[in-house]
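Hey Z.,

So I finally got round to the zinc ion thing we talked about over coffee. Here's the setup:
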Amino acid sequence: MADMTSLLSEHGSASHPAVVRTFAEDQTVQRRRSGLRRTDRLVPAGLVHAAGRDTERALCGLLLDSLHEFGRSRYPFERFSQDTRCRTCDEAAGLRSA
Ligand SMILES: [Zn+2]
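And the result:
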């Protein structure tokens, strides 16, 4: 665990925490119809936050307990529009310059 920082700096990416998880303040059901089947699935709603791997808080400091997690493979944080992303998380992840 303690070696995480030195490992990252070796790869030259220590200036920004890795964004590996996506969280949303809310979630909503999206109804889709494909053929005869109807599938409901949960999609992110409200502001979207980013978090690192082993942490209880989003990059902006919000407790992850109060947020809904979404799979990073399907919902990468940086793919959301800037209006949807939490500005503080965005800046902490190095995606937006202040
Ligand atoms: Zn945030």
